[in-house]
Amino acid sequence: MATMAQYANNQSIYVMRRPLRIGLLLYPRCMPAGLFAFADLMHGANRRAGQQLFETRFVALGDGSVECAHGVKLKPSDPLLTADLDAVLVPGLWAESLHHIEEAVKQNKPLIAVLAGLRTTTAVWSYCTGVCLLAASGRLNRQPATVTWWLSDAMRKIHPKVAWQSEQTCVVNKLTATASGVNGYLPIAQALIEQQISAEAYRDLTKLMVLPRPERTHQAFQSLHLVEQTDGMLRALHALVQRLPAADITVSRLASGLNTTERTLARKVSALTGCGVSAYARKIKLNQVSERLIMTTVPASTISAELGFCSDSGMRRMFKELTALTPAQYRQLFGRN
Fold first, then answer.
1. In 3-state terms, what secondary structure has residue 90?
2. Which architecture characterizes domain 4-205 according to CATH?
3. Other beta carbons within 10 Å of 64
4. Predicted model pTM
5. I want to staple 8 with a disulfide (CB 3.0 to 4.6 A). Which of 73, 114, 239, 254 is the partner?
């Protein structure tokens, strides 16, 4: 699970001026459990803040009942076209293959057209397989986005205009947010609550509601979990390193990008991590390699090129030095394919 710290390089999920009106979208075969959980989180956030910051309502293409996954029928409170919304949350649908996704996209063409035609100021968020519908609407074009791991390769081919970041579990931009997995509503809700209230408020809710804990990763990268990073400069350093091509990363470039001196940056990183700046930045970049090895079937050489390493052989050497595994061995042990 990701935290708001992981989105430091992006703009806030929404700038609050009044209660945020969020449409929870119902459509045939969608899985509504995450929508209910999201609504509960927004209710809890309102209670924690002592005021109504978020307003949720179920919406659909029409005003009749919608048959969701497993035969569950739900009636929306408003049609999507007439609801006055600030944001729309698109849940996933039950699918076991790319064929199921293609059929769902075909069957939901009218809904996809409505999503495409929403006001440009309306935020659109989605998680799990629902991201495929959002991608089909064009609302993710030229935006960083992620998707459930087993669809990542197909989505790169079907929607090449989207800046897919399948190594991430959640990507939040100013007016779009995407997350992987059936519990993807959770990091989206977390980003929203942390932005509009505080990280402390979200921590309180995780304790009260006993929310899921994040997965752990290979021990070489466990220290990189941003949920554990409380320092603002360190979070900004992570975001900057993730954006830059590996070959362009130097201590001077990082210090300049963070508006600090090389000495201050080195002192801060050493005090917080016990590593030098170069070594820590290398670990961040290799973590991106590890996540793409886990989440996709893209060849290691392609991953190396996409992340901007000087050479594939150099990336492989550094990866093995850190993990004691070749990229192929790492994928065999940790890959989800």
1. strand
2. 3-Layer(aba) Sandwich (3.40)
3. 10
4. 0.71
5. 239
Structure token pair of residue 148 = 């459930």
* Predicted confidence (pLDDT) per residue in 198-248, tens digit: 989 998 998 899 887 655 567 778 667 544 566 788 889 999 999 999 999
Q: What secondary structure does DSSP assign to 111-172, as a single string?
A: HHHHHHHS-TTSEEEEETTHHHHHHHTTTTTTSEE---GGGHHHHHHH-TTSEE-TT-SEEE
Region 322-330 average pLDDT: 94
The residue with tokens 């963070």 is: 258
Pick the CATH number of 219-334 from 1.10.10.10, 1.10.10.60, 3.40.50.11890, 2.40.30.10: 1.10.10.60
> CB under 8 Å, gap of 24 or more: what pairs does 238-241 form?
238/5, 238/6, 238/8, 238/284, 239/6, 239/8, 239/9, 240/9, 241/281, 241/284, 241/285
From 184, 171, 167, 155, select the one nearest 294 (Cα to Cα): 167
Let me know: does 40 contact 60? Beta carbons within 8 Å: no
Are 265 and 251 in contact, with CB atoms under 8 Å apart?
Answer: yes
Binned at pLDDT 50, 70 and 90, residue 166 comes out as confident
